[in-house]
Amino acid sequence: MAERQSGKVSAGSTTAEAKRASRRLDAPRRSGPSVHMSLADDIGLSIVRGDYPPGTILPNETQWTEIFNVSRTAVREAIKILMAKGLLASRPKVGSWVEPRERWNLLDRDVLSWYAVSPDRLQFLKTVQEFRHILEPEATALAATRRNEKQMTEISAALEDMQQATTLQTRIQADTRFHLAILRASGNDLLVPLGALIESALNHLFLLVTREDSSSVHALKLHENIEKSIRLRRPNAARNAVRRLLANTDELIAQSGRNA
């Protein structure tokens, strides 16, 4: 066991103490059926953004209850959630520690959400974009071949909502719906859960690249070309239209990086 734990760093005297100091001692105690979910969200975000690097031994139950003013039961349930997501491992008499990043479940909705707001979010969103390059051109070509009328209506409706959106948020929501509707129309059952899992990441990506300027008009035109190609059942045109959209998004991400 000693060899297993070599190299791990205790967080009890560093980050935990800092967090204790930052919280009011008279803060109201968290309670309710969802408290463990809220606690898992707080700890999970802290892990992903680097407060607790891989290998760090986390505060024990008593310390967590003091830091967050919650019950031991809530702490135990939160730790179980994070273990199921691959972020943590735990052993008796040792406690919980942060697992290496390669063991994290990056297709988990919560982990994706934490990554998308972490300090490394730009690099993570580039990774999401690479994933889209691999997935979306062929999925869209399949949609142009296989879509039914109901699915086409969903795609066209999402595009119309993008065109008529009066706020950035409604535009982004419609944009995400547009891409998820295309995945559903591909007719491949494995693509649908992938789309649902990356939904949060897409929202954050579009928030980064969507603009209220001429680039927005150009991006909308690219979406219109995708919708038209699917509607006319032209798989090659649909594939190429998506590639042009992704190339445009690549450039907007690069601009965001230069302006950061």
Question: What is the number of strand segments?
Answer: 4
Q: Helical region count?
A: 13
Which word captures the global form?
A: elongated
Flag low-confidence runs.
1-6, 12-27
Strand content: under 5%
Structure class: mainly alpha
The separation of the N and C termini measures 44 Å
Q: Roughly how many Å is the radius of gyration?
A: 22 Å
Biggest sheet descriptor: 2 strands, parallel
- The helix-strand sequence is HEHHEHHEEHHHHHHHH
Strand order of the largest sheet: 1-2
Helix content percent band: 55-70%
Give the topology, please.
Layout: H1 2-5, E1 9-10, H2 15-22, H3 35-48, E2 56-57, H4 61-68, H5 72-84, E3 88-91, E4 95-98, H6 109-116, H7 121-146, H8 149-164, H9 168-185, H10 191-197, H11 199-209, H12 214-231, H13 235-259
Parallel strand pairs: 1-2
Antiparallel strand pairs: 3-4
Brief write-up:
This protein is mainly alpha-helical and 260 residues long. Helix content is 68%, strand content 5%.
Structural features, described:
- By secondary structure, the chain is mainly alpha-helical.
- 68% of the residues lie in helices and 5% in strands.
- The chain has helices at residues 2-5, 15-22, 35-48, 61-68, 72-84, 109-116, 121-146, 149-164, 168-185, 191-197, 199-209, 214-231, 235-259; strands at 9-10, 56-57, 88-91, 95-98.
- The strands form two sheets. It has a two-stranded parallel sheet. A two-stranded antiparallel sheet has the order 3-4.
- 31% of the residues are buried.
Essential attributes:
mainly alpha; 260 residues; two-stranded antiparallel ribbon
